[in-house]
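Hi all, posting the design record for the shared folder.

TITLE: backbone redesign
STEP: 1 of 1
STRUCTURE INPUT:
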């Protein structure tokens, strides 16, 4: 499933195949699209690529502790994280929450409780977002449906183009730095591949600018980043 869909997306990071299978089946029944990873590094890569709505994370991973996964993730993403772990100690729960986890559920758990916590987290995340529609000039971005229109006509954007435009839109009128754009769209350790950003910005301008050679909406601030102009 691609990212233009409005279906919720979950990434499950757990080294136990049985747990991943259980969670995948359970979440699919709740209309989630589920992607799996068996270790922390693969999990971070899946998160960067899939842009999920929620992450279910085990702490006991083979390559790194789940706490470290949360810390690395929070350097570039605010996506909600629910920790699912056999560790029952208060210190483990506090460490996970302090690192940036949104909730902590001890294994074994009831799926009904997990779904209740998922609903609460997704509601909270949706409530903390900016207004669902952002407009500037003839451009309109509907964040709830991921629909983008120009002068009332819907235009098709790829997942990456939309991710770039959304990040600029929620920071309307403000400069978004090149490193931030790279981190949030392509994930950690991507800042050196700045040519990706230039290529996709050209593609995006061709779709939303009247004259891409003389852009009026997406302005480049040399050496800093890009800004979506607020045209009232």
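Okay, here is what came back for every position:
SEQUENCE:
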């Amino acid at each position: 499933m691609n990212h233009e869909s409005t279906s919720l997306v979950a990434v499950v990071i757990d080294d136990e195949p049985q747990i991943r299978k259980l969670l995948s089946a359970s979440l699919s029944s709740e209309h989630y699209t589920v992607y799996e990873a068996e270790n922390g590094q693969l999990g971070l890569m899946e998160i960067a690529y899939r842009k999920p709505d929620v992450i279910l994370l085990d702490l006991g991973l083979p390559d790194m502790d789940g706490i470290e996964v949360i810390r690395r993730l929070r350097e570039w993403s605010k996506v909600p994280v629910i920790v699912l772990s056999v560790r029952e100690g208060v210190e483990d729960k506090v460490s996970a929450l302090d690192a940036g986890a949104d909730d902590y559920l001890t294994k074994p758990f009831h799926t009904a409780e997990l779904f209740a916590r998922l609903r609460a987290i997704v509601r909270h995340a949706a409530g903390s977002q900016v207004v669902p529609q952002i407009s500037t000039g003839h451009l309109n971005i509907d964040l709830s449906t991921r629909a983008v229109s120009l002068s009332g006509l819907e235009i098709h954007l790829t997942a990456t183009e939309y991710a770039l435009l959304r990040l600029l839109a929620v920071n309307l009128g403000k400069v978004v730095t090149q490193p931030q754009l790279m981190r949030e769209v392509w994930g950690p350790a991507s800042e050196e591949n700045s040519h990706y950003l230039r290529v996709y910005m050209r593609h995006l301008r061709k779709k939303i600018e009247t004259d891409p050679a003389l852009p009026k909406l997406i302005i480049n601030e040399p050496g800093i980043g890009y800004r979506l102009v607020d045209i009232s």
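COMMENT: The domain at 8-127 is CATH 3.40.50.2300 (Rossmann fold).
Let me know if anyone wants the other runs.
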